[in-house]
Amino acid sequence: MAAIESAVGVINAVAIARRSPRLIGIALAAFDYVMDMQTERSDGTELFYARARYCMPPGQPVSMPSTWCGQM
């Protein structure tokens, strides 16, 4: 499994996914991505484009772990 950690990784997600036949999936490392984008975590709006960009290629999207705790 490959981790997508940056805006450049999001742009190249399809090429990364096709790089090796042994690769079974890709995951968005949300915290690293948000840091790369120099923004803050919210309700997930800041992740919408990244998730939509690479969940569209063939295959079933898998729910991703979350690092957001919100208010407890």
Q: How would you briefly describe this protein structure?
A:
Keywords: Metal-binding. This protein is mainly alpha-helical and 72 residues long.
Fraction of residues in helix? 25-40%
Nearest-integer average pLDDT:
79
Major sheet description: 2 strands, parallel
Assign an overall shape: elongated
Distance between the termini: 31 Å
Q: Which regions are unreliable across 5 or more consecutive residues at pLDDT < 50?
A: none
**Structural class by helix and strand composition:** mainly alpha
Task: Report the sheet-strand fraction.
Answer: 5-15%
Organism: Raoultella planticola (Klebsiella planticola)
Pfam families: HpcH_HpaI
GO molecular function, one term: metal ion binding
Domain HpcH/HpaI aldolase/citrate lyase: 1-53
